[in-house]
Each structure stands twice: as C-alpha cells, then as structure tokens.
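Handout, page 2. Input:
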Amino acid sequence: MRSTRVRLAITAFLGSTLLLAACGSGAGGTSSAAANGKGCTKIAFLLPESATAARWEAADHPDVVAAIQKYLPGATVDAPNAQGDATLQQTQADTELTKGACILVVAPKDSDGAATIVSKAKAKGVPVIAYDRLIQSDDLAYYASFDGVAVGKAQGQYITDHYKQYVKTGHNNLVMIKGSDTDNNAHLFGDGAHQLLDPLITSGALKNVYEKFTPNWDNATAQTEMEAALTANHNDVAVAYVMNDGMANTVIQALRAAHLNKKVLVTGQDAEVNGIRNILLGDQSMTVYKPIAKLADSVGRLVAAISKGEATSSIANTTVAVTSGKKIPSVLNPVTMVDINNIKTTVIADGFVSVADVCKGVPKGAGGICP
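Output:
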C-alpha cells in the first residue's frame, strides 16, 4: 500500500510539473502571458528601406514607436530597417522573435516573401500586423494601411481633370512609371489609376506608350526608365504617371535634361519634402498625402488592444482579402490629393512638412506660402 501511495504521489507530482511547464511556455517558448500578443510589451517594428522613400525613417519609424508607447505605456519597440533587402528582413524578424518580441508590426519589403515571417511568428504564438503593405498570408492577424486603390484613383483623377492642359493634337503620349512588382501596394495604386485612365486610353484621348514596374522602387532606375521612354518616343510625352515622389524627382531630372520639365504633367505620392518643393517649382503637378501620424495612431491603438486582450473590431473595422481570398481584419486610412492649390491647408497645416524645408530654393511667394 505504501509503495502504491508513493507511486501515485510521484505520478501526481510529475503531472503537475508538466502542466506548469506547459502553461509557462507557448509554442516556440513564447511566454503564455504574451501568447497571441496578450500581455505583450515587447514589440518589433520591421521597416523595409529608406533609400528610395524618406518617409520610412523620417515619419513612420518615430510616429509608430511614439504611438505604441502612448497607448501601451512601458512598451519597448525595436525598429530594424532591412534597407531594401527582403532576405535581411526575414533574418531581422527571426532575431526579434528570438529576443522575445511578442507582437510584430511588419512593413514588408516583399509582400509574398514576408509570408515566411508570418508563419514563423504564428508558430511562436506571435501575431503579425502588416503595416502599409499587405503580406500575402492567411495567417496574418491584421493589416493597417491606407486605401491603396484610392491613392491610384486620386492620381488618375488628377490626370483626368488636367491632361488637356498638356496634350496637343497628335501629342498625347502617356508614360506610366510604377513601383515594385513585389509590393502589393504598387498593384493597388495601378488598379486605381487604370480605373480612371483606361477610358481615356480607350477613347484615344491618351496613348499609353510605356508602362513598367520599377524594381525596389529604385529612384535611379525610374530615371533610366523615363529616359528610355523619352528616347523611344522622340521626347514626345505629355503625361508621366509616376507612383511616388522619390521616383518623380528623378523622372523630373530626365525631363529637365530634355528641356521638358514644367511641360509634362507629373504625378507623385507621399507628399515628401522634395515632392512638395517640385510642385512649388512647377515641375511636379500633384502628390498624394497619406497622413502617417494617423496610420501610426491606429497601429498604436491596435497593438495596445491586442496586448490588453481588448476587442479590436472598432479599430480594424474593415477587411482586405489576401490572394487566397481570406479576409484580414484591417484599418484603411483615407488619403488626400495635394497640388499647388491646397499645400497650405493640408501638409503645412498638419505639420507634415515645414515651410522652411519646402521653400528652400523656391521663388518667393510660390504657392502662397514661401516667404
């Protein structure tokens, strides 16, 4: 009897020990307090690059960190930047998971390739929020961005409203310099733009003579593409649809070399300092303002809700489908078209860019804002 009782006691002890061990760690060794993000205070924000778009380090990085710490006091946020290397971004994600990050906010360098990051995070009970760019994964927890189709529509609408100022009979060529094929946003922007431009192309009002994705959103490559388009069409271009301000800046350099700057309608996106300055100079026609502070705020609230175990439906109040068709809970912030007429009341009024910065080298009185 005594030996039986001892065996039972040992069995009970071992069983309780195993149970405690199981409760003390989730898949991959993640603390149960942070499993699925609950109780998490160690967050990683993975940035894609900074060379081709100044916004990532100038705005997204500080704004997201500040927003997370505002809504989740005591949180720590690592923010490694992959500098355009998708493989490095995956390594950075592995490192952050090993260090104990329990919520990942990922602005993917490669929308498809980053699915690996999501899979590894899920195995550790770590939710992933895709930031600005969608990650093509059924395991993605949330997506926080802007309405990408609306961005393209804003660009296309501007061209629709203003192209007649730039075309002449027999001179109506349209060039389309798009972003990276591996960035889901580039496809959304293009889809939105084509919804407005295709009727003009079909009618013959505009002639689409050149359309190309630009690997890595590389600014120098965009300039080379524009130069190729100009050469192929004997400098006969009326409209240059360019997806962002960084590429627009180098496209303008190509136009300037051909003495066509200010004579071609040029679009952009991101409302960067150079983009606004180019608008004030008359070299660029418009940009799309995406208030990054608002996107960062929504991410901060979302991270805090996950950590506190609170409902997120009031924050991620819409859905976006990945390629499989699965709908991901999402936050989609609105965007604003900016041209010479509303710089003062949009990006200046919001403090997104400063008068001092955008007016460097710009004639006095430009846009009604330059002293």
